[in-house]
Amino acid sequence: MVTVEDGRIVAADNACTLGEQKFLGEPRLKGPIQREGKGWKDITYDEAILRTVEMLRDAERPLLFGWSGTHVEAQCIGVHMAEVLRGVIDNTSSVCHGPSILAIQEVGHPGCTLGQVKNRADLVVYWGCNPIEAHPRHLSRYTRYAEGFFLPNDYLDRTVIVADIRKTETGNIADEFVQVTPGGDYAVLSALRAIVRGKRDIIPRSVAGVPREQLFRIADRCLNAKFIAFYFGLGLTMSRGKYKNVRNAIELVSELNRHTKATISAMRGHYNVYGSNEVNTWMTGYPFGIDFARGIAFYNPGETTAIDVLARRECDACLVVASDPAAHFPRACVEHLADIPTVVIDPYPNATTAFADIQIPVAVTGIDAAGTAYRMDGVPIRMRRVLKTDYPSDEEILGRMYAMLQEDHPP
Amino acid sequence: MRFLMNTGRTIKQGITVECKGSPGYGSETSRCFMHPLDMMEMGVCDGECVRVESTEGAIVLAAAAAESVTPGTIFVPYGPYANHIIPGATRSTGMPDFKSTPVTVEATTDRRKTVYELMEEMGGVAYHC
Amino acid sequence: MNEILIKNACVIDPISGINGEIMDIAVSDGRIVEEVGSGAEVIDAEGFLTLPGGIDSHTHICGTKVNFGRYMSPEDMRAGRTPRRGRMHSTSGYSVPTTYGNSYRYSGMGYTALLEGAMAPLEARHTHEEFAYTPLQDTMANVLFDGNWAIMEAVREKDTKRAAAIVGWTLAAVKGFGVKLTNPGGTEAWGWGKNVSSITDVVPYFEVTPGEIIDTMIRATEMLALPHSVHIHCNNLGLPGNYRTTLDTFDLVPDLNRKRQTLYATHVQFHAYGGTSWSDFCSKAEEITRSVNEKPQIVIDMGQVMFGKTTTMTADGPMEFNLYRLHHNKWSNHDVELETGSGIIPVLYRRKNLVNSIMWAIGLELALLTKNPWQCLLTTDNPNGAPFVRYPEIIGLLMSRKYREAEFATIHPDTEHRVSLPSIERELDWQEIAVMTRAGQARALGIVDIGKGRLAPGAEADIAIYPLKIGEVDPGREYERVIEGFRQTEYTIKRGRIVSRRGECLVWGNNTTIWVKPKISERYDMAQDPAFVEKFDRYYTVRMRNYPVQEEYLKRNLCIETETEL
């Protein structure tokens, strides 16, 4: 429910704290801008598109990065652009749940849609994630405070376990908080796997700061539950061990399925990061980090992922779509962005604007553009347009660029 | 003193992330959450500046006491400050060590830089609406 | 106007009763016509075998589960890569290729229409998005109803009309084609880590049996006059002794439709197992085909297994978990709230493995022992038994006893005691192959009337010309020439345009999604049923008004409206 006055959203009801901010936002760029020495000048959309195409044409190894904050229709065009340019295309998952994807590629992923959790999960585990701060609606919609078909008394019917290296806000509302020594997640997950496999006698008195009695209690809670929903966050993907931590969590959940019902899911961030993974996968076979330099789609995370391509100073132009690498990437990467031609397609000025040669503002999906987004559980949602403005959508801007690039390579 | 630097999301960072030029975003992402006992040992009070150094370089942050942070670790919200000193290496995973960078922390009288000062240092040019 | 004249075609068109005649085919504006003007493009077919475009009536090519198969399998993606070339985009993958990979390879083999076998309605948008990137074929999606809460409640109330109303509303909402039941009742039980073990077992909480679900859905489907019958993946897939469940299911089926079967049972190879465990595992293809031969109301497809690597994927979540416990490789599962489940694991079918060898033999036995080729269609349940690129080899095996014997000599030696394949002399002919790969599919899916599966004037100009001169090839001896011939067309023509020439795809495509909208009176409109709406909004995680797939997701499409009893 949004209230619109004079073509601007002035109130957003029923949205979460983070969503409300997305609607109210800061002032958007009025039109494309181009850097000129130490300042900026306004340019037209036609000029901005042409110059971007020229930049991409001139590049030998362009990087097309971002994509998680835009709709599926634009993401599809992005893949076609990378293919025709023989560039690298990567999305923000390489710096959030990329390691989770690597783990899934090793051992699979027993998951489910959010409604299964809402209607059935009597035990919810949050590991290395802090939904109260990062996914404010998760607890009220699907877990702690949600009424489900088989769990009519939300709060009473469900147990919540939180494991983290610090007691977060989410830890405060848990029935059981598990404090893990930093870097100790792998060991604690291994201990739980051993207990579930009936090897209680080999567990030492404490594992990575977690007492044996607590490990036994958690394992028993799992074994006695009817439906376990295990959610994990960047606490596993970014800390020591990275994808091996996630792999261990998945294998614990797979093991639990021999005794009861258990599912596991990543707490994905950007609203459509999963959509970008899906699009990349059906079009190229790989969820992120795809390199078309050889003509075929080539995937080697650690080599073809954005951080590596930038930190090795390998790419010679960068198109940033709907994300802000300058705020989220290590300094070495940002310094290289400053050295190469960079174009940003984003409604708002952000940290990456400072490193751009051109920025092209666009409509925001779900506000003044319609399009598809994939929820963290893979359910595709139609994002409606609630406001009509003159801003073009990402799909329109990228579609025009792709059309010009195709003319270079007639079939 | 040696610490392990952890970075992560906070709700304030999440709200201000759409307005990275705002003072709110800069002040939230330049905070260094530490256990009060560690701060006491270093002789640093809440809000005073600390210099955090890794193999990549150093950055000035404002210390903030938090019981929830494990002694021996510091927590810095995601953002340009933490990234200033996180190495670009990914150990062949595509993912930098966002949650496990070894650092040293000491009290300092230097002031915190603004987000755009950081950006300009790296070759960026601020855009003001 | 785009016109083509195909001269000297050796046509087999079973629906029109043409069997190997040398004739010309005229194409105008996407349809087959009596004659064309002198300006038409002329293709000299040189007496090559010319068939209606191939139709796959059960394949997994698009949607949440298929894409997760790709997502979790970079090793499979690396196993088949082609660069961007001409009009063709790059492709990746062997057993679960990218959408372009599927579309180009099917097109190169002469296929012009594909039915995605299992679409969860909640995730239908995803399937339609991938359809848009599968440009060279017409596409249809069967909709999963096996664990649908509202359906099971209607079954419990014995309210067939309500079940029909729910099916009708859902098909129209998600732009689906037909009704799919995958392990009916079992996918809901899997929500608790459980399963059902026979058609009389009771689904937890809902207190209905698989048999009751199947019976109600058959009657509901006929009430809605859907073009396709209920399409079932029986309970107990892959388990020794499961042939009894399959026979019990077949025995439930009345003959309710004059134009087509009343039940389509898919990948029956996986459901024709005898024995009590893996140690006395054996073929029951004779029992299964005896039942099929007695029941014209049933059509099956083979679900043939071919040796090599592939990826298994199905809505049957509990079955995939059992398979995972056998293979100990990676396992994915994805339960869909209030509707169904799914699972994925990679497998390797090995010649030296007795069970795998028996499975290989069973698929062939089903096809060879079913007397009427219209009742047993050629599939691998792509990619579950094998990727579809193996179809030409299966054709070779069905047409040549010599080839079967040569293969049999390489498989596990104990197989001969568990199967009857070595004693089967039958060799299928060209006409029977044409039935099992296109004409039979068109009739079973109920799409003959919209111009599919035939080459008579008025039909859609979907045509496959294979480099095979049937008078000059003895399939029994020269099976290798048969396999080569079916591997790649000289020309594949789709909607009157040459889309593939010797494997090179020449146009972007943009084909038709076929979907079904039953006409239902206001009284039975579920969108206006307060109890249905209330429950929907309460227990799904999307609002009912956001559930239907919008028109934006259908590029080119054909809606079949049906006259119903509601």
What do you see in this structure?
- The complex is a heterotrimer of chains A (411), B (129) and C (566).
- Chain A is of the alpha/beta class and 411 residues long.
- Chain A has two domains: 25-95 and 271-408, Rossmann fold (3-Layer(aba) Sandwich); 98-266, Dimethylsulfoxide Reductase, domain 2 (3-Layer(aba) Sandwich), CATH 3.40.228.
- Chain A contains 18 helices and 21 strands.
- In chain A, the strands form five sheets. In chain A, strands 4-3-19-18-17-5-6-15-16 form a nine-stranded mixed beta sheet, with helices on one face.
- In chain A, strand 9, helix 9 (169-172) and strand 10 form a beta-alpha-beta unit.
- In chain A, helix 4 packs across helix 13.
- Chain A is elongated.
- By secondary structure, chain B is an alpha/beta fold.
- Chain B has a single domain (2-121), classed as Barwin-like endoglucanases (Beta Barrel), CATH 2.40.40.20.
- Chain B is globular and about 40 Å long.
- With 566 residues, chain C is α/β, with parallel strands linked by helices.
- In chain C, strands 1, 2, 3, 4, 5, 21, 22, 23 and 24 form a nine-stranded mixed beta sheet that branches. Chain C has an eight-stranded parallel beta sheet with strand order 6-9-10-11-12-13-16-20, sandwiched between helices. A three-stranded antiparallel beta sheet of chain C has the order 17-19-18.
- In chain C, strand 22 (491-494) and strand 23 form a beta hairpin.
- The longest helix of chain C has 16 residues, at 354-369.
- At the A-C interface, helix 3, helix 4, strand 7, helix 5 and strand 14 of A face helix 1, strand 7, helix 3, helix 4 and helix 11 of C.
How do the strands and helices of this protein lay out in sequence?
The complex is a heterotrimer of chains A (411), B (129) and C (566).
Chain A: E1 2-5, E2 8-12, H1 17-24, E3 33-36, E4 39-42, H2 45-58, E5 62-66, H3 72-85, E6 88-91, H4 98-107, E7 110-112, H5 114-120, E8 123-127, H6 131-134, H7 138-142, H8 154-157, E9 159-164, H9 169-172, E10 176-179, H10 185-196, E11 206-207, E12 210-211, H11 212-224, E13 227-232, H12 234-237, H13 243-256, E14 261-266, H14 273-284, E15 290-291, E16 298-299, H15 306-311, E17 317-321, H16 325-328, H17 331-339, E18 342-345, E19 358-360, E20 371-374, E21 380-383, H18 394-408
Parallel strand pairs in A: 5-6, 5-17, 8-9, 8-13, 9-10, 13-14, 17-18, 18-19
Antiparallel strand pairs in A: 1-2, 3-4, 3-19, 6-15, 11-12, 15-16, 20-21
Helix pairs in contact in A: 2-18, 3-14, 3-18, 4-13, 10-11, 10-13
Chain B: E1 2-8, H1 11-16, H2 23-29, E2 31-34, H3 36-42, E3 49-54, E4 57-65, E5 73-77, H4 80-83, E6 101-107, H5 115-121
Parallel strand pairs in B: 1-5, 2-4
Antiparallel strand pairs in B: 1-6, 2-5, 3-4, 3-6
Chain C: E1 3-13, E2 18-28, E3 31-33, E4 41-44, E5 49-52, E6 54-59, H1 64-71, H2 74-78, E7 81-82, E8 91-92, H3 99-108, E9 111-119, H4 124-132, E10 138-144, H5 149-156, H6 160-174, E11 178-182, H7 186-189, H8 210-223, E12 230-233, H9 243-251, E13 263-265, E14 273-274, E15 282-283, H10 285-294, E16 298-301, E17 308-314, H11 317-327, E18 332-335, E19 343-349, H12 354-369, E20 376-377, H13 391-399, H14 401-408, H15 430-445, E21 463-466, H16 479-487, E22 491-494, E23 497-501, E24 504-505, E25 512-519, H17 530-539, E26 556-563
Parallel strand pairs in C: 1-4, 1-5, 6-9, 9-10, 10-11, 11-12, 12-13, 13-16, 16-20, 25-26
Antiparallel strand pairs in C: 1-2, 2-3, 5-21, 7-8, 14-15, 17-19, 18-19, 21-22, 22-23, 23-24
Helix pairs in contact in C: 5-6, 6-8, 9-10, 10-12, 13-14, 13-16
